[in-house]
Each structure stands twice: as structure tokens, then as C-alpha cells.
Amino acid sequence: MKSLASWFLAGLSPLLLAGRAGDAPVSRALASRVGARIADAWRVPVQQVRLQWGRSSGTGSPSDETTFRILGRGEDGWFVVVFDPAANTAMAVRVRAGIERPVMVAAHSLPAGSRLADGDLREEMRVHWGVPATDSVTTPGTGWEVRRPLGAGEVVAAPAVAPPPLVFAGQPVKLEWQRGGVEVSVMGIALNSARRGETVRARLEERPARLTGTVVAPGTAVLVAGEAGR
What CA–CA distances, in Å, run from 169 to 200, 201, 222? Predict the structure, then answer.
């Protein structure tokens, strides 16, 4: 059965059917069972799962109750489903799975270097093919920088866009340091602009020392190791 799946993955050109159950090589009920199995593995509501089916390796017609195995890691959402794996007439079908989710897209063309403003974005439902992302995604909004040209309808997300800086060059920045019960903070002037998680260098207002910190909030950075003792 492994050789059947390997042949299928290597040689089959998929016929994508956009989840139209009536065009799939299996019944709607059987397709729902496959979707439920993937939803359970991904720990997402089955209603969010979308499937795109490819041609089958055989000419059989599995019944609604047919047993099946799902093979593959789901890279980019691709699996091979083997129906009735214990039989000599087992049928393999390539299927792509994804999750439908709301995303922000460009309401019109956005040039590189511009800043997002009201009316630049609209929300649409799109399918993310493959294992759902576990990290939280920050929704872009007003003031974000457009780093490359975006066409109307294109998904607006990092790294094509980046949030605005939280610290600006030439502006005051508070540099904090904490260890145990000891807390130290000093004010400086930022030498560069930086976003959350980026590095900012600052000069102190009363002496020529330069300190480096990681931006954590508007106008605030945490001193990196070793800087507090300078």
C-alpha cells in the first residue's frame, strides 16, 4: 500500500475541484468523513476544513462506509487518502486540505513605502492550505508600512507589511532593566527608529554613554544583558 501511495504522489497531476463535493471522486458523505478526520488531527472545527480532490488511481466507487487511511505529512495541505486499504482493489486519491479563515486584503493597489490608511483594507474569507498556524497573527491596521507593492485583492500580511515603529529616532525612550527585586530605568534619546522586538540604541541625556535595548512598548525598551552596568 505504501508503494501505491508513493506512485500516486510522484506521478499524478491533481485536478483541483475547489471542494465541490459533487465533483469529487467520492461521495459527499465519505468526503465529510475524510474532512472530519483531518479536522480532528488539526484540532479545528470540521466546518472550517476545505478539501480539493485530485483524480483517483483506480476506477472503483467507494461506499459511504468504506474504510480509509490518510497518508502524508500534509505539507502545503497535500495528503493521499487510500480507500479500503486492506483490499486488492484499494483506491488512492490525492487531496489537499486547508482551513477557511478571515484575512485582510488590499482594497486597491498599495505602493511600496506607503502607510495603511482608512479604506485601504477589506476583510475576506480565504483558505490557508496546510496545517493551521499555531502562532497568533497580528492584524495589520492604520499606520502599518507597505514594504512591497500590493495589488487589489492581495492578502495584506507580514512581511509585505510591517507595524509602525514604537520608538522613533530623535525622540525620548525609557530604558528599563530588572533583575530579582531590583529595577532600574533611565531616559535617553533614541538614535534609530525601531518596532516591537527590534533593537534600539540610545544616548543618555546627561552623559555620552550609549545603551542598547529591545523595544517592548511605545517609547520603552528593555536593556540587553550587560548594558545596565555601564
Answer: 9, 9, 17
Closest CA to 77 of 58, 54, 56: 54
- The CATH fold assigned to 172-223 is SH3 type barrels. (2.30.30)
**What three-state secondary structure class fits 39?**
helix
CB 64: neighbour CB atoms within 10 A?
Answer: 12
Q: Which three cell numbers stand for residue 5?
A: 501511495
| Terminal Cα distance for the chain, rounded | 66
Q: ω into residue 208 within 30 of 0, thus cis? A: no
188: β partners: 173, 204
Give residue limits of the domains in the chain. 1-158, 172-223
- What percent of the chain is helix, strand and coil (3-state, nearest 5)? 15, 40, 45
Alpha helices in the chain (DSSP H): 2-11, 28-42
At residue 87, the 3 state secondary structure works out as coil
pLDDT string in tens for the chain (230-residue length)? 344 444 333 333 333 333 333 456 788 999 999 999 999 999 999 999 999 998 777 656 788 999 999 999 887 899 999 998 776 667 889 999 999 999 999 999 999 999 999 999 999 999 999 988 776 678 899 999 999 999 999 999 989 999 999 999 999 999 999 887 788 888 999 999 999 999 999 998 777 788 999 999 999 999 976 555 45
